[in-house]
UniProtKB/TrEMBL annotation:
PANTHER family: CYTOCHROME B5, CYTOCHROME B5 TYPE B. The lineage of its organism: Eukaryota, Viridiplantae, Streptophyta, Embryophyta, Tracheophyta. InterPro entries: Cyt_B5-like_heme/steroid-bd (IPR001199), Cyt_B5-like_heme/steroid_sf (IPR036400), Cyt_B5_heme-BS (IPR018506), Cytochrome_b5 (IPR050668). Residues 24-58 are annotated as: Disordered. Residues 1-21 form the signal peptide. This is Cytochrome B5-like protein. SUPFAM superfamilies: Cytochrome b5-like heme/steroid binding domain (SSF55856). It comes from Camelina sativa (False flax).
C-alpha cells in the first residue's frame, strides 16, 4: 500500500513540474528575462527555513515541500495538479522519496528549481 501511495505521489509531483512553467507564483523569472546578458547574475544566499516553519505551509492555498533539504513553494501548482489532492499528502513535509521515484521523467528535475525558495536549516 505504501509503495502504491509513493508511486502515485511521485507521478503527481512530476506532473506538477511539467505544467508549472507558466504559473510560477513569484516574479523571479521575469527579472531574469529583463536582465541583459552583459549583466552579471546577482549572487544571493538562499533563505533558510526550519522544519517547523515549513510544516506550517501544509494547505491547498499555502503548500511547501522539502526535497533533499531544499524547500519549494508549490502553491501555484496545487490546483493544476493532475492527481488532485495527492500533492497535499506531503504538504509541509519531506517529499524526497516520492519525487525521486521511477515514474518521473528527467525533465522534472530541472523544472522543480522554478519553485525553489530556500534551504532546510539543520
Amino acid at each position: 500500500m505504501i509503495a502504491v501511495i509513493g508511486l502515485l505521489l511521485g507521478f503527481l509531483i512530476s506532473a506538477l513540474f511539467l505544467i508549472q512553467g507558466k504559473r510560477r507564483s513569484n516574479g523571479d523569472h521575469q527579472d531574469k528575462k529583463k536582465r541583459s546578458s552583459n549583466e552579471p547574475a546577482e549572487v544571493v544566499k538562499p533563505k533558510s527555513y526550519s522544519k517547523s516553519e515549513v510544516s506550517e505551509h501544509n494547505k491547498r492555498n499555502d503548500c511547501w515541500i522539502i526535497i533533499k533539504d531544499r524547500v519549494y513553494d508549490v502553491t501555484s501548482y496545487v490546483e493544476e495538479h493532475p492527481g488532485g489532492d495527492a500533492i497535499l499528502v506531503h504538504a509541509g513535509d519531506d517529499s524526497t522519496d516520492g519525487f525521486f521515484g521511477p515514474q518521473h521523467a528527467t525533465r522534472v528535475f530541472d523544472m522543480i528549481e522554478d519553485f525553489y525558495i530556500g534551504q532546510l536549516s539543520q
